[in-house]
């Protein structure tokens, strides 16, 4: 069985603060992929990043960075110098060796960035 | 532009009625999915289909039905057997066969039972 836990249900920060969204996962598979999605108020999920289980290099894309640590089964997401437009619900998800390419989603973290 | 369309955006249903939510994609994706999202919660899988004329139940299929007669279309019917259908419904699609393929999502349909 697979499980993704996002312990932070809501985070509120002031613009320009850095913020880290936590994601902890469980799987018995050795080959798996982790994803982050953003859900703005409009409702549509937007894909942000994918990371495979064999690549523990951290990744940076502009103000976004991701820290993948297999030792702690975590795939955390940091936004540097947050902006109001970053306000959204963020989901972490896991896909492992199973039929149907099914994603297991965490419960999501609602990020509110105040001006 | 390639993408996924869902209609309607908002849907109101009286108790005891069946309603059908539309999902269409022009991405030439093989697999399609339906998720349900309740306030403050994550996404739960209702049904998925990897190929035309074939589909499987997800975690919460009771009270729902689907069909996959065309590659581009995967409509979801919410039946009267679904006791608490008020929720946000998201359709997604992906290239089948590989766990590394991200899913692409439609804009969603918000269903309210009156």
Integer-rounded radius of gyration of chain B:
13 Å
**Percent of residues of chain B in beta strands?**
over 45%
Report the count of strand segments of chain B.
11
Query: Which residues of chain A sit in consecutive blocks of at least 5 with pLDDT less than 50?
Result: none
Mean pLDDT of chain B: 92
Q: Most extensive interface, residues per chain?
A: A-B, 30 and 29 residues
Quaternary status: heterodimer
Question: First CA to last CA of chain A: what distance?
Answer: 41 Å
Classification by helices and strands of chain B: mainly beta
Question: What is the helix content of chain B?
Answer: under 10%
Shape of chain A: globular
The Rg value of chain A, from CA coordinates, equals 14 Å
* Percentage of residues in strands of chain A: over 45%
Question: How would you characterize this protein structure?
Answer:
The complex is a heterodimer of chains A (115) and B (114). By secondary structure, chain A is mainly beta. Chain A is built from no helices and twelve strands. Chain B is an all-beta fold. Chain B has no helices and eleven strands. In chain B, the strands form two sheets. In chain B, strands 2, 4, 5, 6, 9, 10 and 11 form a seven-stranded mixed beta sheet that branches. In chain B, a hairpin with a 5-residue loop joins β4 and β5. The termini of chain B are far apart. In chain B, 37% of the residues are buried. The chains are: A mainly beta (115), B mainly beta (114). At the A-B interface, β5, β6 and β10 of A face β5, β9 and β10 of B.
